[in-house]
Structure to design on (135 residues):
């Protein structure tokens, strides 16, 4: 199972060839953490509030979601993992954003690879299998 971070999804939505080729190679394994899905929709709504025409983007985001193998929603195990991870990182003095903590917690819970260009944040998470397809 491969989880995609928001920055990877945005690169795919912008037709970044490196990302698109990875998506094709990994069809059947690609999932969005619920927080990534929420961040994509939030970006769209933010642009709409700024008065931009977002209908084409709305269709592209819907189509992108449909190409994924699913959205991972919160489970009890992910909630516990989130709490443990957030407490651990805060104790270490190296917390990451709450949204990224949710994404990492889901990846750890599912023993999934997380694909992100935000390696400076996620590298702080012990035992997280992390890849950057934009390198």
């Amino acid at each position: 199972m491969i989880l995609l971070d928001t920055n990877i999804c945005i690169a795919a939505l912008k037709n970044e060839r490196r990302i698109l080729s990875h998506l094709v190679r990994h069809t059947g394994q690609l999932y969005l953490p619920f927080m990534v899905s929420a961040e994509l929709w939030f970006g769209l709504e933010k642009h709409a509030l700024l008065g931009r025409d977002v209908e084409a983007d709305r269709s592209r985001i819907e189509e992108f979601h449909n190409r994924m193998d699913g959205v991972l929603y919160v489970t009890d195990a992910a909630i516990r993992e989130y709490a443990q991870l957030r407490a651990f990182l805060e104790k270490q003095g190296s917390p990451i954003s709450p949204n990224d903590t949710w994404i990492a917690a889901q990846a750890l819970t599912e023993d999934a690879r997380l694909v992100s260009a935000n390696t400076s944040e996620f590298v702080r998470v012990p035992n997280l299998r992390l890849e950057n397809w934009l390198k």
